[in-house]
From TrEMBL:
It catalyses: dihydroxyacetone + phosphoenolpyruvate = dihydroxyacetone phosphate + pyruvate. This is phosphoenolpyruvate--glycerone phosphotransferase. ADP-binding subunit of the dihydroxyacetone kinase, which is responsible for the phosphoenolpyruvate (PEP)-dependent phosphorylation of dihydroxyacetone. DhaL-ADP is converted to DhaL-ATP via a phosphoryl group transfer from DhaM and transmits it to dihydroxyacetone binds to DhaK. InterPro entries: DhaK_L_YcgS (IPR012737), DhaL_dom (IPR004007), DhaL_dom_sf (IPR036117), Dihydroxyacetone_Kinase (IPR050861). The keyword Kinase applies. GO terms for cellular component: cytosol. Keywords: Glycerol metabolism, Kinase, Transferase. Residues 4-189 form the DhaL domain. The gene is dhaL. Its EC number is 2.7.1.121. GO terms for biological process: glycerol catabolic process.
């Protein structure tokens, strides 16, 4: 994957988030404050004016900075920091091996920044499972990514705003887990 291919994929995400805005809003209304859909749309809408495509590194870094300052909430700094971290390991051309390194860095960034572990009902549940699958060369289709998000449904949240709902957070997919399905799907494409 070259710079212009990745740029297209990142810019196309605004269409995905506009289509899924209501779904993410509903999920966040159930176990949060209902702003996740609008947050993600705002972040990716700001991308065309701020993305720097002079190199693969600048592409990911500028995406991270833009997401950090435009998504807001808990998820903005987490996604933003992750893209900045991935910019530090990306090659000029992304192949399967480089994508593995990027996914590992994505997962480490969330763990570090969110102080989160598996099964706390967050985006990390999807990102870390995708990372593990990639390292083992397993298929990572949209359906597989979605199945990771669906696993968050039956567990109790112990991080973020959803943790205030305690037992009542059970029965709903985590909004950040759902949004990370779309982000990972764009990054991975048909590489795995
Ligand atoms: P806020 O909770 O501030 O309203 P958002 O609604 O945009 O922010 O994002 C909520 C999502 O952020 C959650 O669904 C969860 O996936 C993710 N999240 C929150 N706190 C953490 C954390 N400490 N580590 C990882 N992800 C987190
Ligand atoms: Mg929210």
């Amino acid at each position: 994957m070259n710079v212009s291919e990745l740029k297209t994929r990142l810019l196309n995400l605004v269409d995905v988030f506009e289509e899924k805005e209501d779904l993410l809003t509903d999920l966040d209304r159930a176990i949060g404050d209902g702003d996740h859909g609008v947050n993600m749309v705002r972040g990716f809408k700001a991308l065309p004016d701020n993305i720097d495509d002079r190199s693969m590194q600048s592409l990911l870094k500028s995406t991270g900075m833009t997401l950090m300052s435009n998504i807001g909430g808990a998820s903005g700094p987490l996604y933003g920091f992750s893209f900045v971290k991935m910019s530090q390991v990306v090659n000029d051309e992304i192949d399967k091996d480089n994508l593995k390194v990027m996914l590992n860095s994505f997962s480490e960034a969330i763990a570090q920044r969110g102080k989160v572990e598996l099964n706390e009902k967050t985006m990390y549940d999807v990102i870390e499972r995708a990372n593990t699958a990639a390292q083992q060369d397993e298929a990572l289709t949209f359906e597989v990514l979605q199945s990771y998000a669906d696993l968050t449904k039956d567990i109790e949240a112990t991080k973020g705003r959803a943790s205030y709902f305690k037992e009542d957070s059970k029965g709903h997919v985590d909004p950040g887990a759902q949004s990370s399905v779309y982000i990972l799907n764009a990054l991975i494409g048909d590489e795995f």
